[in-house]
């Protein structure tokens, strides 16, 4: 490794014993170039590092030797949009990374994989896997023409493989080792190979027992193998942008009818001499459907399928500018728990959609949030949010906010105003106590500091559990939302409330379209395949909540989140 000049980021990371490090910007690129295109040796002195990101640095050609051995605790390594070739990666990834769960090598112009990922020969035989815990591998936007069976041995626990924007000609191709135990990729649930040059989708795709999502859009496929119907868990498939010979099948593909496609392939398709079998299969399905309907089950199945909504999760590794919320230590004693995410693609413009959105939020505050005593929701127009954000505490006489529908005011004065309003309401309604709507005002009694979410300009955009700011107020034109849920009770309550909030917004979005309040008539042709899909899915972008040292506290939505609403929501991960 090179040592050209000081690296203050690395010095600070070593001094503060950081577990997360992100290197970016022109100064970093200049130092990398001055160091011969390598990372500095000081990086090897950070054994506690768990997450490392260095992206968008065209000067970075080599990791340098010893990175894997020096950083054994790494669970996230993002090296996207650099100039790393197989040789440049080889030395750095030459040893095992036993804790690594996410590896992003997208946009590096790779023509072959490094040896550690099975890029040479048939892999390491019976040697221990180099990445035994790797769950997500992003190889998009490279120049890969083929993949070897060594990858299955190097990363046996892989769940997500992203290969879009390469030059692959066959899939799975050489990715699967010869038959025999153990089965390759037993956990692989998502395979994305869109925008390649794939001419053949092999029947051995059915050898992936956990495959749920397959994307081979915009390739050169002429046929789809009948074996696709043997993928036991395949739910989402995108074959659009291929020139299929079977025009009936192509119509199903363009209509995003995954279930119909698989049934059609299972029945033998067209032009295979099995037309009678296909007709019999259709008749059989009709009989089974009628039997279910007669027994009362069919109608229920149809209702459940139709009621499914669709959201797509954009992972941090796929997001060029992921939003991060930093939490100060002081919130622990005031309001310790916060969960955030970004939700894109809402439609609040037609009719009374905005009014219904605000009413929905009020109802959630009344019900699942227990009149804000269990948790509080804040929704913001993402375009008006100035990142990065800090979840902090400030004294009541120092915290200033411009509350919704009011002028800027100090927090202590705002609370006094709201308490007077609550008391006046109590008197008017002749009640013994203040109404439930105002009970949350007591949650900050006796606190020396109040919680607040502060933007990059130092403005308070949220003051939970009281109000959020006029500065980031949602309007009819709002398309993208920043959502936050806070609680002084538990993190799980925050997650459960966020799950429900996303579900309710998805229901509202679909209702708007079903009532023809929106103009999205041209959206349908671009929709992702999926059950119950009426338009483009809402996109939920993961947001990380970290402490002042950069250590991850919360990532939402994680793989286990949104489970509480899974019966009503289909999540593409």
From TrEMBL:
Instruction: Give the Gene3D superfamilies listed for this entry.
Output: Phenylalanyl-trna Synthetase, Chain B, domain 3, Ribonuclease Inhibitor
Is the keyword Coiled coil in the record?
yes
- One GO process term, biological-process aspect: phenylalanyl-tRNA aminoacylation
Annotated InterPro entries? B3/B4_tRNA-bd (IPR005146), Leu-rich_rpt (IPR001611), Leu-rich_rpt_typical-subtyp (IPR003591), LRR_dom_sf (IPR032675), Phe-tRNA-ligase_IIc_bsu (IPR045060), Phe-tRNA_synthase-like_B3/B4 (IPR020825)
Q: Where is this region: Disordered?
A: 273-303
The source's domain of life comes to Eukaryota
**Where is there biased composition of kind Basic and acidic residues?**
273-283
One MF term in the entry's GO annotations: phenylalanine-tRNA ligase activity
**SMART domains given in the database record:** B3_4, LRR_BAC, LRR_TYP
Q: Show the coiled coil region(s).
A: 408-435
Pfam families the UniProt entry points to: LRR_1 (PF00560)
Q: From which residue to which does the signal peptide run?
A: none
Which keywords belong to this entry? Answer: Coiled coil
Record's protein name: Leucine rich repeat containing 47
User: What organism does the record attribute this protein to?
Assistant: Corvus moneduloides
């Amino acid at each position: 490794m090179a040592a050209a000049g000081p690296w203050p980021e690395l010095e600070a990371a070593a001094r503060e014993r950081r577990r997360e490090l992100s290197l970016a910007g022109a100064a970093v690129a200049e130092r990398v170039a001055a160091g011969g295109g390598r990372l500095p040796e000081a990086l090897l002195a950070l054994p506690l590092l768990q997450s490392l990101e260095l992206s968008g640095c065209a000067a970075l050609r080599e990791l340098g030797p010893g990175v894997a051995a020096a950083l054994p605790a790494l669970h996230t390594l993002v090296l996207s949009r650099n100039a790393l070739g197989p040789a440049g990666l080889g030395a750095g990834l030459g040893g095992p990374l036993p804790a690594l769960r996410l590896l992003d090598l997208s946009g590096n112009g790779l023509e072959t994989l490094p040896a550690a990922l099975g890029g040479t020969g048939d892999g390491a035989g019976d040697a221990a896997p180099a990445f035994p815990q790797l769950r997500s591998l992003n190889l998009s936007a490279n120049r890969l023409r083929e993949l070897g069976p060594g990858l299955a041995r190097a990363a046996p626990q892989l769940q997500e493989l992203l290969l879009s924007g390469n030059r692959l000609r066959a899939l799975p191709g050489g990715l699967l080792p010869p038959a025999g135990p153990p089965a390759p990729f037993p956990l692989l649930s998502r395979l994305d190979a869109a925008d390649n040059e794939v001419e053949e989708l092999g029947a051995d795709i059915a050898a992936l027992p956990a495959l749920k999502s397959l994307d081979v859009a915009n390739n050169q496929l002429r046929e789809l193998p009948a074996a696709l119907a043997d993928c036991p868990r395949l739910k989402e498939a995108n074959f659009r942008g291929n020139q299929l010979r079977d025009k009936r099948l192509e119509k199903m593909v363009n209509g995003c009818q995954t279930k119909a496609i698989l049934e059609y392939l299972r029945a033998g398709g067209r032009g295979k001499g099995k037309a009678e079998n296909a007709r019999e299969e259709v008749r059989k399905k009709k009989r089974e459907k009628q039997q279910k309907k007669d027994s009362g089950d069919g109608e229920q199945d149809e209702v459940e399928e139709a009621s499914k909504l669709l959201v797509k999760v954009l992972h941090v590794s796929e997001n060029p500018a992921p939003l991060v919320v930093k939490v100060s230590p002081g919130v622990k004693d005031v309001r310790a728990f916060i969960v955030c995410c970004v939700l894109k693609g809402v439609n609040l413009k037609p009719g009374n959609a905005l009014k219904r959105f605000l009413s929905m939020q009020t109802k959630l505050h009344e019900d699942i949030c227990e009149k804000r005593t269990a948790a509080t929701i804040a929704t913001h127009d993402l375009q008006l949010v100035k990142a990065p954000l800090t979840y902090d505490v400030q004294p009541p006489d120092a915290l200033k906010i411009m509350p919704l529908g009011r002028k800027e005011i100090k927090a202590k004065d705002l609370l006094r105003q709201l308490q007077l309003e609550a008391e006046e309401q109590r008197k008017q309604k002749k009640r013994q106590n203040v109404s439930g709507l105002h009970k949350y005002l007591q949650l900050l009694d006796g606190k020396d500091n109040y919680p607040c979410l502060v933007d990059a300009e130092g403005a308070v955009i949220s003051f939970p559990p009281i109000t959020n700011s006029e500065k980031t107020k949602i309007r009819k034109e709002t398309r993208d939302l920043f959502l936050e849920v806070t609680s002084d009770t538990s993190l799980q309550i925050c997650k459960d409330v966020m799950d429900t909030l996303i579900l309710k917004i998805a229901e509202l979005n679909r209702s708007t379209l079903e009532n023809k309040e929106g103009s999205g008539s041209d959206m349908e042709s671009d929709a992702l395949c999926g059950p119950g899909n009426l338009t483009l899915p809402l996109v939920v972008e993961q947001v990380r909540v970290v402490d002042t040292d950069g250590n991850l506290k919360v990532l939402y939505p994680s793989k286990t989140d949104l489970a509480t609403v899974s019966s009503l929501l289909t999540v593409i991960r």
